[in-house]
């Protein structure tokens, strides 16, 4: 039982990272029907920018771990958000009406970001400062660190904020209108280009947040770190119902827990097979994911 | 229409660019060095290429070999089967007389067949999977030990020195790691009282191994041996300690990189690493390390010294053969007897494996790899 | 569906086609083994691209796990040749059978799904096949299968890069002829109808499930043939050749070339293989240059290098009808946001 609980905690931690990244996939997909292959690499950029900030602050002799972390988070999120907008403007905007060509452009963007990091930083792994230890509350023999609590809670807060933004504000309404019908939204006076740019900004901000926390929690970052987790996060977004914000969060946590249980009770070597097999079964039963609605859709 | 002409021009340009890369026979004797320069193993490839360059520069400073200068021709194989085969063809086209390099066994095995068909000697520096030389190609050699030599050594260390009875083995499902894990398990099986309680793989590229380690913890192992590469190794060592798993943690020779210690932080203290002796612990390598540092302004990587030796074995063979004929070089390499390299003396057995490879165990102490028992 | 079927070729296109054909013929005579090997790789991607073109270009089903069929073909041939000493040629029908079955396995449960859900299911299938090949012992695990013999014709062993090039050429021409005829067959017309409007196709008596399944099966068999060839070309195969990246690379071939267009696939394959090779001079900047190159190529030619003529006309029509369809969607979902 305690092992099962520990696996649940493990799964929730991994799931929080999946969920934060899945949100970027799902928002972009919801609005312009693009699988943004470069999104995982945006997350990697966030982690590297954060590391640079720690380096800079250490050089300036600012040592307070909480202060430096907040600064690293804010700067990294801002920078990465703007990078997301830049990527959209350069590589995607001219191709919005070419549904498959834009995919290739996204792959090109992914390679550009990966090997940009490779050249600017390092072909090797870089190590984050060890700022926060493993201390934390303990429930029976189940160990939880404060960092895990912070990741989980702040992740949920950001996700809720995003949900409110999309559902309770004017700009959110414009985003939803765009997702339903771009032309009609344009006719109603929505600045389509600005709204899409904002979507990329928000998705990239969340990815950067996940990137810096990855550095802090796992302590190791590399230029290829976004690839595998990007693939998983995309899977999570589809699992929950792509285009759906609560769906991405649910999908992220579910995938994290499923993997934890599969590795714990079956075999780590087969855990991805288990995860994908369950995904396929869910999609066969519910072809639009767990929380996806039925919509008429064209290829 | 104009666009068409433009893209046609680009295409023609690409073709001609691909074509000019080949050919161009100079007077220099060319030695091929295939290494990963892109992808996750790019750092290792960089370290290896630098060692090869150093070896050749040293000979050129002495006036070259057979009155001719030497030259390194290096191509990216990305540790990928397909790309390594293309790189192999490109090296052969470039007119290399022999090849010394490679990193991943998964890339070296397919490429070795191309070198075999072309009759070019291939001295592998870091590919330790037994199958590379078990193919029976007379042109294939390696200066590193075999996984099925390290496996029994690691098994012996865990059973005899650590007196461990319950042993967990974790690999990462790559050719190297699985080979070493299999060899270790085979050496443990059937030993009285010893039990392999866990045998499973992690996925390279992931960062969270708490799920698999939670399972390991519930099995109360007395020793856990990780046979994969250091990027995951450092993380596993850290999470192993954080979860408070019983027993000792050991890692294979792909973890003898300083980055392992940086990643794991204080959790790396007391971790054992089985390995061939690192350059800094070999009197023979002292001079090499100094020259490498001077030339590149950085420490050599874990495989730099091996590559340095691989290139020098080829050069030594060219000198003894007094010829740059590819077949003559293969013969001369096979006849290598007690060549004194940076990693010790080198001779090859019939298969092309290095004879008498020594393994030792390091323990991490105060953030450094220290030979175990040498207090 | 394809340029050869459309209006007469423009002069520049004819000139380009002639140049490519000439280069393909001259390569084995004039090229060095390296260039011939690069040419062989182009041909492998031509086979794979043509196969995926059946699924994506003809039938309009997005597939992100196509490398799975490539893997099944390669492993079938490799295992039969190494374990059971079957001749290369005899493994081909078996590989075709196995890939066809796997086409049904992945096709059957997914046919009700549309576009991007299909994409992720195929992605999952691709990963499952690769991981299974890594984990099973009969597939050789991560080491894969090595020592695959060269194919023989009578006493003659096809070993040299040149011989492999000609074998690849024979395979590619067969696949090309198959694709060309498929586009013109009853099947081809039914795919076109389904791709453009499934409901309307159904209304005139085209049963989509059958035709979609056929697209999967034929696409899978083409990839299987490419896999069989790949196994004897490399003589050693392991799971790392059949990753998600491989699937994406094959998809790049057909999108770069121009969806649905056979000459486009050939051109796309050439670019995908030659571009990274040509960029070797950039050394450490190679992959960065490749990424930027992909973006620039797409920005300059969003419909691909050699788009299909009919496709262009279709696209205009689709763009027009998209507005009305989207308007209909808005009505459908007006009550359900997102």
Characterise this structure:
The complex is a heterotrimer of chains A (about 300), B (about 375) and C (about 350). Chain A has about 300 residues and is mainly alpha-helical. Chain A has one domain (about 1-130, about 145-285): ABC transporter involved in vitamin B12 uptake, BtuC. Chain A has eleven helices and four strands. Chain A has helices at about 1-30, 40-60, 65-90, 100-120, 145-170, 170-180, 180-185, 190-220, 225-240, 245-265, 270-285; strands spanning about 125, 140, 140-145, 220. In chain A, a hairpin with a 2-residue loop joins β2 (about 140) and β3. Chain A is globular. By secondary structure, chain B is of the alpha/beta class. The model of chain B is unreliable at about 20-25 (pLDDT under 50). The longest helix of chain B is centred in the N-terminal third of the chain and has 20 residues, at about 1-20. Chain B has helices spanning about 1-20, 40-60, 80-95, 105-120, 130-135, 145-160, 175-190, 210-220, 230-240, 260-265, 285-295, 305-320, 325-335, and strands at about 30-35, 70-75, 100, 120-125, 140, 165-170, 195-200, 225, 250, 270-275, 340, 345, 360-365, 370. Chain C is mostly helical and about 350 residues long. Chain C has a single domain (about 30-335), classed as ABC transporter involved in vitamin B12 uptake, BtuC (Orthogonal Bundle), CATH 1.10.3470. Chain C contains 13 helices and four strands. The relative contact order of chain C is 0.17. At the A-C interface, α4, α6, α7, α9 and α11 of A face α5, α10, α12 and α13 of C.
What topology emerges from the helices and strands here?
The complex is a heterotrimer of chains A (299), B (375) and C (338).
Chain A: H1 2-32, H2 39-59, H3 65-92, H4 101-120, E1 126-127, E2 138-139, E3 142-143, H5 146-168, H6 170-180, H7 182-187, H8 192-218, E4 220-221, H9 225-240, H10 245-265, H11 271-285
Chain B: H1 2-21, E1 29-35, H2 42-61, E2 70-76, H3 81-93, E3 98-101, H4 105-118, E4 121-124, H5 131-134, E5 140-142, H6 147-161, E6 166-171, H7 175-188, E7 195-201, H8 210-218, E8 223-226, H9 230-242, E9 248-251, H10 258-264, E10 272-275, H11 286-296, H12 304-321, H13 326-334, E11 339-341, E12 344-346, E13 360-365, E14 368-371
Parallel strand pairs in B: 1-2, 1-3, 3-4, 4-5, 6-7, 6-8, 8-9, 9-10
Antiparallel strand pairs in B: 10-13, 11-12, 13-14
Helix pairs in contact in B: 2-12, 3-4, 6-7, 9-10, 12-13
Chain C: H1 11-30, H2 33-58, H3 67-83, H4 88-110, H5 115-135, E1 145-146, E2 152-153, E3 156-157, H6 161-184, H7 186-196, H8 198-203, H9 208-234, E4 236-237, H10 244-257, H11 262-278, H12 286-300, H13 309-333
Antiparallel strand pairs in C: 1-4, 2-3
Helix pairs in contact in C: 2-6, 2-9, 2-10, 2-11, 3-4, 3-5, 3-9, 4-9, 6-7, 6-9, 7-9, 10-11
